[in-house]
Model the fold of this input.
Amino acid sequence: MAASFRFLLIALALLCSTSVMSAQEGPLMPGKWPAGVKVTPADTTNTSIEVAGGWPSDHRQVVGLRFYQKGQLSACSGLLVSKKIVLTAAHCTCGDHSFDVTNGPFNEEHWVHGTFVSRFGNYDCNVYPPKGDDLALIKIDKETNLFLNSAKEPICGSYGLLSGIKRAGDFYPNFPRRVTVAGYGFEGDDESSIGLQRETIVDVNSFACADPIASHFMCKPFKEFVAGAVRTDGMVRDTCAGDSGGPAFAVVDGSLIPVGIVSRALPVQQLFPRHGDCGSGGIYTLIGRIDVLDWMRKAGVSEGDTDQSCAPPVLQ
Done:
């Protein structure tokens, strides 16, 4: 009851301070490559690029995607859930079915080729809003340029996150108060920053969109959640264009447990007027669900719990 009342207050604050966008507004779009802009190492000196209010990240499970959509070179993010399978947002696959994938900086040009596998459930590229099914899988041809840590150790054959994702189902109804979100997009002020992995911590405002007010924000109950709708520790922290498909993690006993995938911005006027797509919170697809787990398992996503030496690194 207290959680519902808290989210009601958040929603009322948003409605009072921002203008609601049209129900026809599409999902958070992939990041667009600005004409003539190339990411350079100098971009890393900017202290607030990529995820809004974020900092540099080295979670190698997070990947960046480069592809063409409507003739425009674009970017999204994703989560490496098996040695050769990436989980991302379905709307990032509504167009070209060929992708370049990396888990290093875009400017290093260490890309591997990936191809579209499937979209979850009944996702329709021509229908908005998503119904909690904004998920897709991409299969990479080879993993020679991907690695699990900064020491560039190769990915072992039994690597997989399915067992960790299943743990996310244990959180209901005690969902984490905060999650760590990561991606390769830009934060709203500096377009040239795209392609550098960053992360931040955001408050979870409605863990399952079960609050009555959540329907106003077109959030699917028990299939999606809202995070970043209010400032965290007094700071604007949020995912942005190009972070679509990026993961949200819960930190449990030093381990990162994937709980969601970036789907779209909240349908309100955003705090970064230049891009209008970040700064006021986002809607994330819950992935610790039986139907999502079954879909990934059928696609060949590995449990990943048979070889502990192959597991993602534990946070120090």
